[in-house]
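pls design
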């Protein structure tokens, strides 16, 4: 039996659940256990899980007892083959905070770095200058300060944890932030006030790989679940645009600006079989020279040609997309324009799409059923609507979601 890939270790059941659901939303097969690691690992359902969430029930324990149970559970999970650890803590700092974080870090690996950010902007939690704010107030000025079991007496996390503290720098890349975290110490508190800052921090944590022990609430778990999913999906995304609508053209431009490789054959190339065959081989050869996780765009030309209708153009591009998908490492396909989407499915011999979500309203996300690329993630979109970045978002949705093998 293979072990799950990720473990969430939480101090109470409801916190475990609200963090685990962030991984569900990113497509991970997730099992929420009511008990500790031993119970979770013994559950027959764990055989189907990629993420398991365990509950130490340690929020009201003494620091010494909390450290003991957290250490035991993290050690058991590590020995079982878990590759990524997420330490869930209360977003208002209740419980034996330092004891649990330090115990998790020590039990995970000798060189582990606990990266701490309990911010959750969507629920009013933010971390600025090391101080946790809840709806704009320091947490010690909220009801958490008078909690009857675990009253919160300190709003400044670096003081609470005797740890390093980093502020995010505007325009700093995740890799740059990761380097600063790595140099800062064994426990590092990192500020975040917005969803964008949470995203940057999550990407920095992912860059640290197994060495990092992210410590937070659902706010950090949400982007990290997507990013960890994306790190497991290595390959290109193929985008086919057959629509002539101005919206689709603007969306192609957005992909180009984002770094996509765009192939736009001329009309006469599509119309002449010999020229088209040569062009196909050029594209296939060019694709082999791109970076491993590239975005490849096939863009139908504007205008017409005698004997070449829109269905023929779509069929040509659908055929080329299928060649790229089956002969190269592709992790998904995005098709805009109904004729183009149909042509791609036909070229791959797919019988349909198993829907799992949507990128945004009217832009479904699923996996192909049947054919040469069964199980491949796919997004379809009509050509005449959507914001300029909708195809960029579609590519991201394909990359940053876990799909069944």
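designed seq:
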């Amino acid at each position: 039996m293979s072990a799950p890939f990720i473990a969430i270790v939480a101090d109470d059941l409801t916190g475990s659940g609200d963090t685990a659901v962030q991984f569900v939303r990113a497509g991970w097969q997730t099992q929420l256990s009511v008990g500790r690691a031993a119970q979770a690992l013994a559950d027959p359902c764990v055989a189907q899980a990629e993420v398991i969430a365990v509950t130490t029930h340690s929020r009201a324990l003494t620091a010494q007892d909390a450290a003991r149970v957290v250490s035991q559970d993290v050690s058991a999970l590590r020995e079982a083959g878990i590759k990524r650890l997420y330490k869930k803590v209360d977003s208002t700092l209740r419980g034996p905070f330092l004891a649990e974080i330090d115990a998790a870090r020590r039990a995970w690996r000798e060189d582990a770095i606990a990266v701490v950010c309990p911010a959750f902007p969507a629920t009013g939690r933010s971390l600025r200058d090391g101080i946790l704010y809840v709806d704009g107030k320091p947490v010690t000025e909220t009801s958490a300060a008078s909690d009857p079991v675990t009253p919160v007496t300190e709003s400044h996390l670096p003081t609470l944890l005797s740890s390093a503290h980093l502020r995010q720098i505007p325009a700093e890349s995740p890799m740059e932030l990761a380097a600063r975290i790595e140099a800062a110490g064994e426990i590092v508190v990192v500020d975040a006030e917005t969803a964008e800052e949470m995203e940057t921090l999550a990407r920095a944590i992912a860059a640290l790989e197994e060495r990092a022990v992210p410590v937070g609430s659902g706010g950090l778990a949400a982007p990290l679940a997507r990013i960890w999913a994306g790190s497991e999906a290595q390959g290109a995304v193929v985008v086919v645009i057959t629509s002539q609508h101005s919206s689709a053209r603007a969306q192609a431009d957005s992909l180009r600006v984002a770094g996509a490789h765009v192939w736009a054959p001329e009309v006469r190339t599509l119309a002449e079989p010999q020229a088209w065959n040569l062009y196909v081989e050029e594209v296939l050869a060019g694709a082999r020279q791109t970076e491993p996780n590239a975005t490849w765009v096939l863009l139908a030309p504007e205008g017409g040609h005698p004997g070449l209708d829109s269905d023929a153009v779509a069929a040509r591009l659908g055929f080329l997309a299928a060649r790229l998908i089956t002969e190269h490492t592709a992790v998904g396909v995005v098709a805009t324009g109904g004729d183009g989407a149909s042509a791609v499915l036909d070229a791959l011999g797919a019988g349909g799409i198993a829907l799992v979500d949507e990128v945004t309203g009217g832009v479904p996300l699923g996996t192909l059923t049947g054919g040469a690329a069964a199980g491949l993630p796919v997004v379809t979109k009509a050509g005449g609507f959507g914001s300029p970045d909708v195809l960029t978002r579609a590519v991201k949705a394909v990359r940053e979601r876990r799909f069944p093998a």
